[in-house]
Amino acid sequence: MSKVTVYTKHNCPQCEVTKIVLKDEGIEFNTINIEDDQEAMEYVKDVLGFSSTPVIVADGHEPFSGFQPDKLKELKY
């Protein structure tokens, strides 16, 4: 199973439902709130090129943004 990080913001409904799907699928993940972590915000915006959350980064997978249940379930493998 790949290592998964979910970059989130406060009061983000898509972030919350993304975490629920990951939990339901039994996928372990770390959460980093970019509003509380300036370095993480710069990484998401400047390195990854995303401007909205959630941003999901997983070993062996292309980073993606937004609530995408099919892509989330692929992280199991």
UniProtKB/TrEMBL annotation:
Q: What is this protein called?
A: Glutaredoxin-like protein NrdH
Q: Which family does it belong to?
A: Belongs to the glutaredoxin family.
A Pfam family the protein falls into: Glutaredoxin
UniProt keyword annotations, A-Z? Disulfide bond, Electron transport, Redox-active center, Transport
Residue ranges of every copy of the Glutaredoxin domain listed in the record: 4-61
The cross-references to InterPro entries, in alphabetical order and at most eight, read:
GlrX_NrdH, Glutaredoxin, Grx-like_ET, Thioredoxin-like_sf
**Looking at the keywords, is Disulfide bond present?**
yes
Family annotation (PANTHER family)? GLUTAREDOXIN, GLUTAREDOXIN-LIKE PROTEIN NRDH
Under the heading CDD domains, the entry gives: NrdH
Whether Iron counts among this entry's keywords is no
**Known function:** Electron transport system for the ribonucleotide reductase system NrdEF.
Q: Which gene encodes it?
A: nrdH
